[in-house]
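It is worth pausing here to work through a concrete case rather than discussing structure prediction in the abstract. The textbook approach is simple: state the sequence, then state the predicted structure, then interpret. We follow exactly that order.
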Amino acid sequence: MIAYNYNCSLVIFHCLTDRRCLSIKMIILEAILKYVLRFCKGGLLRFLSNQETATAIERMLRRARLSMKFSEGFHPHPKISYSSAVATSVASAAVYALVETEEKEQQLLSRLKKQGVQTLQLLDAWMVEDSNSISDFIDGYEFHLFLPKTNYHANLPDGGLMVRKRTKKGERLLSVSEAFQNVSIAALNKYYVVKYMQHFDCLVPYQEWLRIMILADGPEECGVYAFIKDGVLGNTTTSFILNRLGGKENVRSQ
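Step two, the predicted structure:
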């Protein structure tokens, strides 16, 4: 069940009747609507910066003629918030955006899917409570790393080994057990698949994992493919949380 809140604005009309000024007050109710959109980004478009990705998504929304809300001031911009940025070259099926609109959108999913650009595509969309923010649904990512067997081993590292997290103030050291959670390694024909979760406060580059697993004589990133399968909140995937909202207000059921 989605509950709607409203922004109320007061409009006063003045009219002259028998030389008297009458004020007629009208309350205009403006619904606050929010949608969470899930995009995937792969192929060559995974090399877009986070700002370039945001610009491409905004253009997609404009082409679909969404009635987006805009900020006030001299340089208004759409009210869109995104999940945490990741490094370029990482493919992702968890580019989440929360968009505020002026009205309830009809056939939102089909309209946006028609506006996809090459390997930047909409996967899903949900209507959420107006009080929700993007952080209510996502606080980390589920990573999959594909590592060629010729260059990497499959041994789990000591949890006390230290890795580096870059911050605005320099570098911060984290243990492997802090930075990489729910780690598993599976073997394919020519690759190892390393799966793990990282929460935003402990987000470190996947290259730190490569440094741990690389063989002594192997090139560092030759043949490596990094992919984000979904967002997570705690240990639950973001798409599962949003799907639990259910009901006809979920735009997938329109």
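Step three, interpretation. The chain is about 15% helix and 40% strand. The two ends are 15 Å apart (CA to CA).
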